[in-house]
């Protein structure tokens, strides 16, 4: 049975309120599209402002592109840029609202900015009387284990790398951990179970950002996203971002052979050649590897990440290096060539998976889905 979004409960919750809407294009609803457009067209809803996140209100911008506030030509409603550099909300704008509604699709990974937007919304609302309502969405990797080292990235409190929780649940955890004085309500996804894969939710995959165009790219991001902060291309500027990895100096045949030899669960590798249209190695032919998923349930993202890192260093010690941001993206510590050379995936996973399990135990009492 497909999951359902309780829009009737949402409308009852919002009745008579001056509303601000935080939404993204990937927050597509079977009832007719984007939540902001649906509420703006509803005579029972008084939408006073919309807030656009990274990639813009309509998803027309690449990662990292800042933009200014403007009036949405479709609805005539002011759109305030959360991603204009300040990464916060204007007290003057919030003062004219009673409730902020949040509806965004994330990718179940710490290195994604939408959970930080929710955190900043809760912090800005604390102590002001402003209510925050989340129309929740499924977690794409909710069926996987909570994995990876804790790190302070895109959230006020350290999180594991792989997050099998919804944004609504993370908001509950933040409110508890920071003791935030804010009226916060989550409207759960109906008929959703955490063990579901995305396909089992019955929802189509709508790209939450330009470089996560497919469901497989979401899984790939969990396995290869860290390569953004290395000297290897994560294949931005190609048709398979994060599913391909490579560089002009990379010898793909031996790397594929080595990766295949590890028999990693849920994933296979093949040789590929690509030329990025933008980003790293723009216009240069890159030898590389195509990460292909054979069983989403069996996948172990962190083991896959660590194995790729280890084999890249073994085969290309003179060319493959961590770059700025690697440690922040991974475990908030400094990483060098020497540390990568000494990396023992089994020992690393033993330690970090224990951290992930401890986090899961903290979340247990707040979980909205079984």
What labels would you give this structure?
alpha/beta; 3-stranded antiparallel sheet; 370 residues; 7-stranded mixed sheet; Aspartate Aminotransferase, domain 1; Rossmann fold; 30% helix; 16% strand
Which SSEs are present, and which pair or pack?
Blueprint lengths: L3 E2 L1 H8 L3 E6 L4 E2 L3 E2 H7 L4 E7 L17 E2 L6 E4 L9 H5 L3 E5 L10 H12 L5 E5 L31 H11 L6 E4 L1 E2 L7 H4 L13 H10 L19 E4 L4 H9 L6 E8 L11 E8 L7 H15 L10 H5 L6 H5 L3 H19 L7
Helix pairs in contact: 4-5, 7-9, 8-9
Task: Characterise the protein shown here.
With 370 residues, this protein is α/β, with parallel strands linked by helices. It folds into 2 domains: 4-206, 3-Layer(aba) Sandwich (Rossmann fold), CATH 3.40.50; 215-335, Aspartate Aminotransferase, domain 1 (Alpha-Beta Complex), CATH 3.90.1150. The chain is 30% helix and 16% strand. The chain contains 12 helices and 14 strands. The protein has helices at 7-14, 35-41, 91-95, 114-125, 167-177, 198-201, 215-224, 252-260, 301-315, 326-330, 337-341, 345-363, and strands spanning 4-5, 18-23, 28-29, 33-34, 46-52, 70-71, 78-81, 99-103, 131-135, 184-187, 189-190, 244-247, 267-274, 286-293. The protein has a 7-stranded mixed beta sheet with strand order 6-7-5-2-8-9-10, with helices on both faces. The chain has a 3-stranded antiparallel beta sheet with strand order 12-14-13. Strand 6 (70-71) and strand 7 form a beta hairpin. The chain is globular, with a radius of gyration of 21 Å. The protein starts with a strand and ends in a 7-residue tail after the last helix.
């Amino acid at each position: 049975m497909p999951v359902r979004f309780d829009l009737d409960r949402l409308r009852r919750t919002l009745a008579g309120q001056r509303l601000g809407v935080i939404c993204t294009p990937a927050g597509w609803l079977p009832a007719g599209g984007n939540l902001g457009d649906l509420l703006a067209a509803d005579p029972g809803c008084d939408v006073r402002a919309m807030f656009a996140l990274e990639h813009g209100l309509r998803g027309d911008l690449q990662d990292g592109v800042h933009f200014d506030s403007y009036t949405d030509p479709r609805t005539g409603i002011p759109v305030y840029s959360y991603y204009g550099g300040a990464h916060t909300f204007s007290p003057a704008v919030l003062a004219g609202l009673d409730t902020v509604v949040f509806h965004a699709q994330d990718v179940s990974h710490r290195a994604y900015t939408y959970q930080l937007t929710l955190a900043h919304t809760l912090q800005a609302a604390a102590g002001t009387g402003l209510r925050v309502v989340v129309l929740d969405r499924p977690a794409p990797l909710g069926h996987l284990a909570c994995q990876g080292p804790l790190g302070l990235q895109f959230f006020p409190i350290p999180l594991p790398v792989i997050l099998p929780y919804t944004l609504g649940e993370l908001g509950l955890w933040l409110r508890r951990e920071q003791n935030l004085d804010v009226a916060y309500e989550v409207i759960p996804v109906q008929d959703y179970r955490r063990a579901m894969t995305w396909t089992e939710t019955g929802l189509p995959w709508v790209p939450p950002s330009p470089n996560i165009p497919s469901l497989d790219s979401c899984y790939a991001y969990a396995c290869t996203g860290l390569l953004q902060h290395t000297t290897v291309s994560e294949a931005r500027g190609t048709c398979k971002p994060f599913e391909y990895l490579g560089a002009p100096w990379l010898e793909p045949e031996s790397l594929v052979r080595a990766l295949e030899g590890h028999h990693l669960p849920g994933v296979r590798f093949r040789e590929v050649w690509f030329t990025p249209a933008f980003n790293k190695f723009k216009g240069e032919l890159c030898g590389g590897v195509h990460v292909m998923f054979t069983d989403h349930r069996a996948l172990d993202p962190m083991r896959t990440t660590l194995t790729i890192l280890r084999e890249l260093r073994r085969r290309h010690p003179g060319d493959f290096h961590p770059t700025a941001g690697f440690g922040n993206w991974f475990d908030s510590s400094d990483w060098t060539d020497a540390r990568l050379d000494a990396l023992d995936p089994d020992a690393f996973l033993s330690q970090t998976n224990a951290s992930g399990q401890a986090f899961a135990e903290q979340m247990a009492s707040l979980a909205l889905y079984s």
